[in-house]
Amino acid sequence: MRLTHRYLPGASVITIDGDVDITTSRELENCIDLVRRSLDDHLIIHASGLSFLDSSGLAVLLAAAVLAQARRVAVHLVGLQPRVARILEITGAMPAIRAHDHVEQALAAVASTGGVHFTEPA
């Protein structure tokens, strides 16, 4: 698994490439903890490269979503592969996490909740 991140106004963006499973879920959890500049920032996870998600990875995402909801922000997953989307659907996790097809949609959702206006860097 490869994790990268960047910052945008009101949001921390993490890109995942590879599998999130029992051997890598702790790395994702640590990345989320380290990357968040503020607990009041939305967390956007660009997941188009996320090929597999097991229960340990799901637990990391749900814990991040619970913390975000407590701060009145959200976890946004972008570009879910059908296999990963199905896991979120059958486990009932979708209501806790906002799913978007494109990063621009997640950014628009962030802007609409906090009045933050920005465009995706080129």
CATH architecture classification? 2-Layer Sandwich
Radius of gyration: 13 Å
The CATH topology label is: Transcription Regulator spoIIAA
Query: How far is the first residue's CA from the last residue's CA?
Result: 25 Å
CATH class: Alpha Beta
The biggest beta sheet, please?
Answer: 5 strands, mixed
At the fourth level of CATH, the homologous superfamily is STAS domain
What features would you describe in this structure?
It is a single chain. The chain is an alpha/beta fold and 122 residues long. It has a single domain, classed as STAS domain (Transcription Regulator spoIIAA, 2-Layer Sandwich). 39% of the residues lie in helices and 30% in strands. The protein is built from four helices and five strands, in the order E-E-H-E-H-E-H-E-H. Strand 3, helix 2 and strand 4 form a beta-alpha-beta unit.
Secondary structure blueprint with pairings:
Layout: E1 2-8, E2 11-20, H1 25-35, E3 42-53, H2 55-70, E4 75-78, H3 82-90, E5 98-100, H4 103-114
Parallel strand pairs: 2-3, 3-4, 4-5
Antiparallel strand pairs: 1-2
Brief write-up:
39% of the residues lie in helices and 30% in strands.
